[in-house]
Structures are given as structure tokens and as C-alpha cells.
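Exercise 3.2. Students should predict the tertiary structure of the chain below and write it as C-alpha cells, then compare their answer with the key that follows.

Predict this chain's 3D structure.
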Amino acid sequence: MSPVLQAERWPELPYAAWKPTYETLHLWTQIVGKIRLMREPWLNHSWHIPLYVTARGLTTSPMPAAGRALQIDFDFIDHVLWVRASDGRVRQILLAPKPVAEFYDEVMAALGELGLDTPINTLPSEIADGVPFDRDTVHAAYDRDHANRFWRILLATQAMFSQFRTGFLGKVSPVHFFWGGFDLAVTRFSGRRAPPHPGGIPRLSDAVTREAYSHEVSSAGFWPGGGPIDYATFYSYAYPAPDGFASAPIEPTQAFFSRDFGEFLLPYDAVRTSPDPEATLMAFLRSTYEAAADLGKWDRAALECPYGKLCRPRTV
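Answer key:
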């Protein structure tokens, strides 16, 4: 891949510069995600709530809506939020610098005009000091270039995570964008029950957390950063973490175990600046999963298969 194409696919995303947009966009995605939460029946491990990466941004995918279907899409090319009903009626909202409260009012008004009012809990999830959406006049930043760069990273990461999940015969999640933590994730399951999760995540019910972690997992994702991590990073963790997991040998050399987060981290810039970003990221995904599976005594022979090939059925 040429340096120009690599920079387009894996763009620079300086944390300090894009943080105001990040914080606003996080809350905007929560508003849209909570609409999906209110319209979808519960699916194991909270798989009914995420957003999904598209060729232009993020989508709810079609949601049931009073005999119709409702879909809400973030478009980070034209910078528009599309609110579409299956009867052909459409509303659009400009993605531009505006307070979260204004964005919330516009989304609720659009739903009302379509006859699809959807009341939501206005308290942000997984944000300890979050202000209700309808009263948040502080977060109001939106930089088009930064939003577009973030989406391009999601798009490149989605492709890699999708390839990674093809190497697993056991239960494996779709590639989900979880708006609570604002991260893109893919999760493999051993098939065995896990001990009850301790919970304690800010503004997230312990019952939800325990249902999400009811079974053993090895999970990897991309997160833009926050708190003590002022940079974008890939992560990988196991629940429950088997003995010796934190000291397991992993790849590449830039990856490390964070005691603060209890998971392996690989800074995004280590991938972006690598001569082969895809190989670097795949090495991280593979080696951290193998550490979780080997130390956790997963039945790897029964759970794994070769990575998928284009137009070639898996040999059985």
C-alpha cells in the first residue's frame, strides 16, 4: 500500500485536537443508540443496542416501528443525520457545531414528524458526571475533518475485525459500535459460563453488565481514548482473566498490559505508522486471543478454523 493510501486508510487523529468533537459526538451517538434500545427486544449480551459501521458513517440498521421500520444514519461524508422510515418519509439533521440539547431536540422533533415518537432516558450512559441530553449546552463542538477521520479509522478497523472473526467456529459477535463506551468491538466466546461480573460501571446497571458477561470472552476493540489514556488505542481483554494473562507474551512489541484498565493496549499510532498496519493489528488480535484461550484452557481445536477466503467455502 502506498504511503498516500495508507494515510487515507489510517489517518492521524490527535487526541487533544479532536477531543471536543469526540465528546460531543459521543453524546450524539448515545441519543441515537438509546432510540434503538427502546425499539429492539433484548438480545443476549446487549447485541440489540449497538450501531454499525457503514460506507458513510454509522447506522442503527432497521428498527421495528409501529408496523414500519425506522433507521437512523450518521453520514460523515456529507455530515448529515438521516432519519428514515420504511414508508419513504425522511428527515435530515445537519451535523454541525451545536449543543447536545439542540441536537436532542432536533432528533426528537424529527421522530415526532414521522409519527415515531420514542421517549428515551436522557441521562448519558457510562459517563459518571454526564448531564441530561436535553440540558447539555456545554458540549457543542463538531469538526468535520476530525469526525471523518474517526469514521475512516472505524471503517479500516471494521474490515480487520471482520477478517479476524472468520477464524472462529464458536460463538463470535458481529463487529459492534457500542455507543456507551464509544468503541468498536468484536468478541469471541469459549462457550462456558463465567462468574458473575462485579459491575460498578458508571451509569450502567449491574444487571446489564452481568448479562453481557455471563459467559467467558476474549474481546478486542478500538477506543479513541479517555481518562489516563490521552491517545487512541486498540485493546484486548479476557473475562474472566485467567492466571498469568497480564504477563503473557504478545505481539507487536509496542503492545503492553495496562494495570489501570486490566487489558492489553496497542496505541493506534503504532498501527498507523507501521510499514504494514493490517499485519500489525492482526498480530495483536491473534496473540492476545491466543493468550486468553491458552491460559483459559479453551477448546481451541473445536472453536477455531482457518481465516475465510473470498468465494471459497470452508473445507469440512
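Discussion points: The helical segments are 3-9, 15-39, 100-113, 144-165, 206-212, 268-272, 277-295, 300-303. The chain has two domains: 13-135, 144-303.
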